[in-house]
Each structure stands twice: as structure tokens, then as C-alpha cells.
């Protein structure tokens, strides 16, 4: 009886896989990202607010496997710094300073696992997608473009953390359009992502809050966010 149930389960799983359209492909990726840190509180009897914003640019590529209702991929990307802006408001008076572009950059291997629901629009396939991505940092270059030794990277608590300091866990939402040419298809995909976890960002929040409190700040609040938008274009093959 048990052997029969196991055999039946295997048959059902195999049948499900056969029913899915399985394909694989490769895409090039370009995008922009926006990193922001906010600080507010009271200092020397004055209301103080500050925002530090950074712009980043992404260039890379990825390979993907597609199974109708899901997509898994792995890619490599270079995220380069593109300047920013520092805004300070003290009792309603605001000043803004530009942050210069530098040669700072981060290199990542990225893993994606996305769910999707395809709609056939007369042969063209439109699919909303959503899921998670994990960015594994493999190299960090400072403002002068010099590669930083991972043994020289420490977190706010003084622990050696290496390049993992900049690893990201991201929530990903977006859509894809597939235009078929026989077994081949061209996939254009747009993805918006929000960083859910990065150790460096949390440490920078703590640093800003602790510095303001060290100078007598009260009711201090510190926060951060990192969002990104990327477009990928590639070719896939249906098996």
C-alpha cells in the first residue's frame, strides 16, 4: 500500500513537471538604486532633521530558469556610486550640499527566486512577478577605486565581517513580457526592489543616532532605506 502511494505521488509530480513550460535563458541588466538615511531629534533646544541620499548605478547580467509559475536565476552585477545629496533642516531652515561622485563600487553575485502568473495576450506572454533576491558581496572598492581587503572590514561593534557587511536581502516586485519566436523568446523584465536587511545600513543608522545623542541630542530617531529599479533584456529557449 505504501509503495503504491509513493509511486502514485511520483507519477503526479512527474505529470506536473511535464505540464509546465520549462525554459532557460540569459539577460543583461541595467538599473539605478537609491540609498537614504534620515535623522531627526532635538539638539540644543532646536528641532533638527537630516537626510543623506546616495545614488547608485547597476550593470550586470544573469542566467535564469523558468517553469511557468516561477523563475530562478543567478547573476553578477557591479553597483557603482553616482554621488548624492546631504540635506539639513534646523528650526525650519534648510541647507543642501551635493555629495561628489566617486569610484566606490560593490560587486555582487545575486540569487533570485520569483513567483509569477502568466497571461497569454495573443501569443505575447505578460506576467506579474514577485519574490526574493539575495545579493552576496564579492568585492568592495573605496572612493578612490582601490579594492578593500575583506580583513579590514569591521562592523560597528568591532567584529571583523568582511564583504558580508554589504550583503542584501531584497523584496522584489515587477513584471515580464515574453515575445516568442518559435522555441526562442525575448524577455523584457522590470523589477522594483526594497532592501529588507543589510548589516551596514543598520550600523550606519546606529552611528548617526549615537553621534547626535553624544552631542546632547534628545528624542533622536534614525532610519534608512534602499530601493532599486532594474530593467533586463534577454533571450530564452523553451525545451
TrEMBL record:
<protein>
    <recommendedName>
        <fullName>Outer membrane protein beta-barrel domain-containing protein</fullName>
    </recommendedName>
</protein>
<keyword id="KW-0732">Signal</keyword>
<feature type="signal peptide">
    <location>
        <begin position="1"/>
        <end position="19"/>
    </location>
</feature>
